[in-house]
Design goal:
This protein is about 35% helix and about 15% strand. The chain is an alpha/beta fold and about 325 residues long. Helix 4 (about 120-125) links the parallel strand 3 and strand 4. The chain binds phosphoric acid mono(formamide)ester. Phosphoric acid mono(formamide)ester binds near residues 62 and 138.
Length: about 325
């Protein structure tokens, strides 16, 4: 894959947080904070993306990521096209590359793409025009970079520094692109105490999440944690999910108020969504005083604005003159 940065060090594409420096992540988070508006406040309206066309190509379901990329682009003055995954010509056999070339011919400048196929964003980076950028909105089980950024933005607004934080990620880590990207962002920002907590079958392969402690009992994994991040079981990525019993899973791994008392008293409860209440988390915890789940959603718009603005600033150097 080509570098995600251009020769001047500007962000050109974003498909993974691997290899991105702490200063770059911090600059994106700082910019995102300047864009953040609380629900009820007037949304930021800017012109950073004036003259830019953003194409959202979601070939897997999404509520949060798709809506927030759309809002983020429009709030910065972009034109946006949202391709409907069910009615695009990919369903008639058109290759992904031909879809991209078709939209490039319509002056699309930024492709935001979610797909179940591993390697697709990297492949597109190698084939798009020099003035075009690719942003991953979720790549198979591998990477969800803007989710990783919004997660660390949420943690940062409550707890600093990252070094010394105890972070537990609980649930289907094996199939989770969120866990991989958030763990990467945390490591880059200095967190060393990461715990991955799951039944043996849902823990990551040995060698992944290097440095993380592995737990098969939630009570052990979340003890004293400053952050408890719960994950959905991703049945869509499992060959055999029928054997999983939601009620039994909740009994052994669900985050209840009683279990949360094992974590630090001011522990943040996080979840990337979509949540399955009564499976990985109880409703009273999801809606309780420790929960920052809706804050994560709010930060998602700001982070995507910051990423789009940073990429547009770089693209400006590569665009064709009139
Ligand atoms: N967290 C996340 O990616 O949610 P969506 O699938 O709704 O976009």
């Amino acid at each position: 894959m080509q570098s995600q940065l251009d020769d001047a060090g500007g962000l050109r594409h974003l498909v993974t947080l691997e290899g991105l420096a702490r200063d770059l992540l911090t600059a994106i988070l700082d910019r995102a904070e300047s864009y953040r508006r609380l629900p009820g406040q007037p949304a930021y309206e800017g012109r950073e993306l004036a003259g830019v066309t953003v194409a959202n190509l979601f070939f897997e379901p999404s509520t949060r990521t798709r809506a927030s990329f759309d809002l983020a682009a429009r709030r910065l003055g972009a034109q946006v096209v949202n391709l409907d995954m069910h009615s695009s010509s990919r369903a008639k056999g058109e290759t992904m590359l031909d879809t991209i070339y078709t939209l490039e011919a319509m002056n699309a400048d930024v492709f935001v793409i979610r797909d179940s196929e591993a390697g697709l964003p990297e492949y597109l980076i190698d084939h798009v025009a020099p003035h075009v950028s690719v942003i991953s909105a979720g790549e198979a089980h591998l990477s969800h970079p803007t989710q990783g950024l919004l997660d660390v933005m949420t943690i940062r607004s409550h707890k600093r520094p990252f070094a010394g934080l105890k972070v537990a990620i609980v649930g289907d880590i094996r199939h989770s692109r969120v866990a991989r990207s958030t763990a990467r962002a945390l490591a880059t920002l200095g967190t060393t105490d990461l715990r991955v907590v799951a039944p043996e079958s849902l823990l990551p392969a040995e060698g992944e999440f290097r440095g993380a402690q592995r737990f098969t009992r939630i009570e052990d994994g979340i003890a004293g944690a400053d952050v408890v991040m719960m994950l959905r079981i991703q049945k869509e990525r499992m060959a055999e999910s029928a054997a999983l019993d939601d009620a039994a899973y909740f009994r052994s791994y669900g985050l209840t108020a009683a279990r949360l008392r094992l974590a630090a008293p001011d522990a943040l409860v996080m979840h990337p969504g979509p949540m399955n209440r009564g499976v990985e988390i109880s409703s009273d915890v999801a809606d309780g005083p420790n929960s920052v789940i809706r804050e994560q959603v709010n930060n998602g718009v700001a982070v995507r604005m910051a990423v789009l603005a940073a990429i547009t600033a770089t693209l400006t150097r590569h665009r064709r003159p009139l």
